[in-house]
Design a protein that fits this description.
Strand 3, helix 4 (102-118) and strand 4 (122-126) form a beta-alpha-beta unit. The termini are far apart. The chain has helices spanning 7-21, 25-33, 39-46, 102-118, 137-153, 173-177, 195-202, 208-212, 214-221, 231-242, 283-290, 335-350, 368-372, 375-388, 403-408, 432-439, 441-446, 450-464, 468-473, 486-496, and strands spanning 53-55, 74-81, 84-91, 122-126, 159-163, 166-168, 180-184, 189-191, 226-228, 297-299, 307-314, 317-324, 355-361, 393-402, 418-421, 426-428, 479-480. It is elongated, with a radius of gyration of 27 Å. It contains 20 helices and 17 strands. 39% of the residues lie in helices and 17% in strands. The strands form 3 sheets. Strands 10, 11, 12, 13, 14, 15, 16 and 17 form an 8-stranded mixed sheet that branches. The chain is α/β, with parallel strands linked by helices. The protein folds into 3 domains: 3-242, 2-enoyl-CoA Hydratase, Chain A, domain 1 (Alpha-Beta Complex); 267-427 and 467-496, 2-enoyl-CoA Hydratase, Chain A, domain 1 (Alpha-Beta Complex); 432-465, no CATH class.
Length: 514
């Protein structure tokens, strides 16, 4: 008997072919007609050519069922991205609509556990109609096991979720527990309750896209960090994101050879900040001039745009960047910006990425809505995150540094290792105009020419207090630097700093503000 005649090999190959077909050619064609890849095609697009190795291709929810589809609606395994090992799972909408059974969930849990035990990133490609209703509580048990593993893996290995179709109900909590969520534009959706339920309970009418599409979650809710134009772009974003991240929490972030001169000056920064303190400028120009060329990768670019967070490189070293954007709300900090900054700082700290902060802090956004919705507790998260972080922290005050908003943006009092300021910095309890109104209320009320007196007092306050030299003389600012030299100074600081080993009181963990 030859190899080709061996019935055991024939059976194996036949079963492999059946598993690879998922829900069958007709359903595959329907998936393609929607402009979507199949679960396996997505993995081939994501991973290095020939690197994917599948696990449990023959698993089914009910082995006794004659019509059971092999794989049970999810393809799991491991492969490489740019040569780095990753674990992956990809839900198959052609099989029971990608719905989750206990067997389906436990296939996911297996690769989650393997990723955690081997210190390797895990990437989930989600395209599921939700719980498999026929399974009842078994499906819910499976979801809970996935959520538990998400939480256990948090801060140990990077977790990335790519939403490539529906992700509804309790299923949406799994990507929300991961580090980064990428959604495909016009073809993905996330919500706890769908449009029909919303209408029946509240009377509000809205479609799937308007309730939980990519634009909504990337621009309004903040659930999604990135939007892919299509599935190819979304998967390319995963590959690019991983170039900045270490494989786990005990290794250094990746470094790459840089073709950008570490001694390069940026003379355009010397004239970027306007003389008039109320005129805006674009903080992204500061970031682009300081980081290695073409290395900036913004996170949450469409949400809370008064704050900026993202990854970049300085002389090839991966760093996290936090900044304020004077072009939006004058860079003031509101509730969403607080959450955006604090979560990103904690991620960088968890995965050993040095934190560079560019501060222009006019204050926390005033307003009844902000106060009633908890700006105090949300703003406190930023303090908690910076104090908790033990990675190298270098901050630069670009212009305004007023009151509590100055403190929270990586100030020396919160543990910045090196704290720079530009000569344009104004660091004070409040802006000169406000300070003069408080300090000289009586004189101004009785002055013959209060406006002239106010202008003189404001100029005097700015000259004596609201400048970087006042803080530098007291050791609060380590150096006042020429803006053009910011790149040089940051690289010099990072080449010197190592992650601090700071004694803290023994505790299980802190309690972050809600």
């Amino acid at each position: 008997m030859t190899e080709t005649d061996d019935p055991r090999l024939i059976t194996l190959r036949d079963m492999k072919e059946r598993a690879e077909l998922g829900g069958g050619q007709e359903r595959i064609d329907r998936q393609h007609a929607k402009g979507k890849f199949t679960a396996r095609e997505r993995l081939l697009e994501l991973l290095d050519v020939g690197s994917f190795r599948e696990l449990q291709p023959f698993a089914v929810a009910h082995p006794e069922a004659e019509d059971a589809i092999l794989g049970d609606g999810v393809v799991t395994g491991y492969g490489t991205i740019d040569g780095r090992r990753v674990f992956v799972y990809s839900q198959d909408f052609t099989v029971y609509g990608g719905s989750v059974s206990l067997a389906h969930a436990r296939k996911i849990v297996q690769v989650q556990e393997m990723a955690l035990n081997n210190g390797t990133p895990i990437i989930g490609l989600l395209d599921s109609g939700g719980a498999r209703i026929q399974e009842g509580v078994l499906s819910l048990q499976g979801y809970g096991e996935v959520f538990r593993q998400n939480a256990l893996s948090s801060g140990v290995v990077p977790q990335i979720s790519v939403i490539m179709g529906p992700c509804a109900g309790g299923a949406s909590y799994s990507p929300a527990l991961t580090d980064f969520v990428i959604m495909t534009d016009k073809s993905s959706m996330m919500f706890i309750t769908g449009p029909d339920v919303v209408k029946s309970v509240t009377g509000e009418e809205i479609d799937h896209e308007g309730l939980g599409g990519a634009q909504v979650h990337a621009g309004m809710s903040g659930v999604a960090h990135f939007i892919g134009r299509d599935e190819e772009h979304a998967l390319a974003l995963v590959r690019h994101l991983l170039t900045y991240l270490p494989s786990n929490n005990v290794v250094a972030p990746p470094a790459s050879a840089s073709d950008d001169n570490p001694a390069r000056l940026a003379p355009e920064l010397n004239t970027l900040v306007p003389q008039e303190p109320n005129l805006p400028y674009d903080m992204l120009k500061v970031i682009g001039a300081v980081l290695d060329r073409k290395s900036w990768f913004e996170v949450h670019a469409n949400w809370a745009q008064n704050a900026i967070v993202g990854f970049g490189r300085l002389d090839g070293l991966s760093v996290g960047v936090v900044a304020q954007q004077p072009m939006v709300l004058a860079g003031s900090i509101d509730i969403d910006a607080s959450d955006k900054i604090s979560r990103f700082v904690r991620f960088c700290d968890a995965f050993n990425l040095p934190i560079i902060t560019f501060a222009d802090s006019p204050g926390f956004l005033p307003g009844v809505s902000q106060e009633h919705n908890g700006i105090i507790r949300h703003g406190a998260k930023i303090i908690f995150a910076y104090v908790e972080a033990t990675v190298p922290k270098v901050s630069v005050v670009i212009r305004k540094g007023y009151g509590g908003a100055y403190i929270v943006m990586g100030s020396k009092s919160l543990g910045a290792d090196v704290h720079f300021a530009w000569p344009t910095a104004e660091i004070a309890v409040m802006g000169p105009e406000g300070a003069v109104s408080v300090l000289h209320r009586r004189e101004l009320a009785t002055a013959q020419d209060p406006e002239a007196m106010r202008a003189e007092l404001v100029a005097d306050y700015r000259r004596t207090h609201a400048n970087p030299y006042y803080a530098a003389r007291r050791g609060i600012i380590d150096d006042v630097i020429e803006p053009a030299r910011t790149r040089v100074e940051l690289i010099g600081a990072l080449n010197t700093l190592q992650e601090g080993i700071r004694p803290v009181p023994p505790k299980k963990h802190g309690v972050m503000p809600a």
